[in-house]
Amino acid sequence: MGDLLKEISADSESAMKGRFLTFLIGDETYGIAIENVVEIIGIQPITEMPEMPDYIKGIINLRGSIVPAMDIRLRFKKPEADYTERTCVIVIHIGGMSTGLIVDCVSEVLTIPDEEISPTPDIRSVDRQGYVKSIGKTENHIILLLDCEKLLNEAELETVSLQL
């Protein structure tokens, strides 16, 4: 995990274009644009908060800052899984606040050229919320590239921020 952080922090903003932090949820590979990533940490003790959506597991104390922790499995309506030593929290910045994304494990930082990124198929029943912004292709993998801003809509952001 430390090597990934060094790789992320060594990037300048222009060098970040086309770079994605990839992670697994079950057998599926997802990616988020590297410029959205603040840091990657191991799973932390989570304090539950009342009246939060089920996918907001609670809050974590990140060096004195209180950060909501969202379980991406639950956000995508996948079965809940136990957290392991490979479980990570990817801290991103959404709507003016930091949010921790709980993922099964972080994979790597990939550069995906624009010509290898396609729009999502126009199937209405797939990803109604718009979480998947586009699809990245590598040698023999498909990576679902997420739109971090869509992971929490404005009403959900307000609910979470009011509780904190």
From TrEMBL:
Pfam families linked to this entry: CheW
Classification via SUPFAM superfamilies: CheW-like
InterPro entries assigned: CheW, CheW-like_dom_sf, CheW-lke_dom
One Gene Ontology biological process: signal transduction
Assigned GO CC terms: cytosol
Domain CheW-like, residue spans: 17-157
Protein name: Chemotaxis protein CheW
Originating organism: bioreactor metagenome
Taxonomic lineage of the native organism: unclassified sequences, metagenomes, ecological metagenomes
